[in-house]
Amino acid sequence: MSSHYDVLGVSREATGEEIKKAYRKLARTLHPDVNPGDDASERFKAVTHAYEVLSDPQKRRVYDTTGNENGTENGFGGGSYSGQGFAFQDIFETFFGAGGGQAGPASRVRRGQDALISVRIDLRDAVFGVNKKIEVDTAVTCPTCEGSCCREGSHPERCDICGGSGQVQRAVRSILGQVMTTAPCGSCEGFGTVIKDPCNECAGQGRIRSRRSLTVKVPAGVATGTRIQLSGQGEAGPAGGPAGDLYVEIRVNNDATYVRDGDDLHASLNIPMTAAALGTELTLDTFDGQQEIDVKAGTQSGEVITLRGLGVTHLRGYGRGDLKVHLQVDTPAKLDAAQEDLLRQLAKLRGEQFTEGKLAASGGVFAKLRDRLGNL
After folding, report:
1. Is the predicted pLDDT of residue 174 greater than 90, yes or no?
2. Which residue, 135, 169, 177, 359, has most beta carbons within 10 Å?
3. What is the Cα–Cα distance from 217 to 230, expressed in whole angstroms?
4. For 198-219, what is the mean pLDDT?
């Protein structure tokens, strides 16, 4: 059978502080809330029992001298056993079952809660990704007691009421007669130990509130509502328990020029009527720098020019979406006399039946309208 020192992984000459640190490290990985395996549960019980004996100077002296596992002079640990060597809890479970309450004291060490924060980024950052620095207000392990909950030089002491079991039995009268029930100890709240000298900074909780800075790697292609999980960056658990996870929810700001549709970007560009008729080249500022756009002669309002691969990066996969530029032809709202005369001359040269401010509705006009409606 392994000694208590072997269970904790320390030498027989280990100081009380070394024993406490070894226990804290093992408890964080073996606690049932963190490691649900049966083997881990049994090891956690063994580690806790070893620490209970070795952290108490009197029990440790008796253990080193006599080898008694419970560190007691009479061979029985803390009143948990009867004079016949039978555990009262085993007898109780034999008659009434094990479902009436938890087996053994509860652990102060628990996993911390998950946390959720919202972070805003620009559309450009959603296209290419960004490293975003954030400030988080959350619970962190107390730097003074390092999660032990106790003032330096002290440790949790076994509860005098329940004898360290975390439970008390009381007789209750029922129709079946007098039966024994088990309930968490009100003195130690079911932990089996009490902290008589708590840490001043955390008031015996093993954690404090603090603001800390983190850098979040936001991948390219995220959209509003995307959540990024940061494992172990949430709330620190009580009594030095492991931290939960932090979830960062992304909110993408609207852009003054571009509108996102899936992984495509859309922009609307107004061009003069003359440029649409004669054709031109335009320079457009994109997230990838300036791009030249060739507007062909005779371009109609509503036509779309597609720039391949200049949209949003695909979040899962390779490549990017497209940038689609929607052209809107501006019709002059006000003309001076010279401009009006020039347009009339153009209409005459094109053979358009435009007289005295009226346009004759020829069959050709209706045919074009019919074709356009048919394409909708």
Report:
1. no
2. 169
3. 10
4. 93
Look at residue 153 and tell me whether its pLDDT is greater than 90: no
3 state DSSP class of 174: strand
pLDDT tens digits, 354-372: 655 555 544 454 454 455 5
Hey, how many other C-beta atoms are within 10 angstroms of the C-beta on 114?
14
d(CA 61, CA 77): 15
- Report if pTM > 0.85: no
According to CATH, what is the number of the domain 1-77? 1.10.287.110
**Domain positions in the chain:** 1-77, 115-151+195-252, 255-331, 340-376
Tokens of 141: 């392990």
Q: Hey, what are 335's tokens?
A: 């003309």
Helix and strand numbers (H, E) in the chain are 9, 17
Q: CA geometry: angle at 198 spanning 193 and 202, to 5°?
A: 120
229 three-state secondary structure:
strand
d(CA 256, CA 267): 10
Is 115-151+195-252's fold the same as 255-331's?
Answer: yes
For residue 93, the model assigns a pLDDT of 40
For domain 115-151+195-252, the CATH architecture is: Sandwich (2.60)
Cβ atoms of 348 and 342 within 8 Å: the answer is: no
Q: What is the pLDDT of residues 101-135, one digit of tens each?
A: 445 788 888 899 999 999 999 999 999 999 999 99
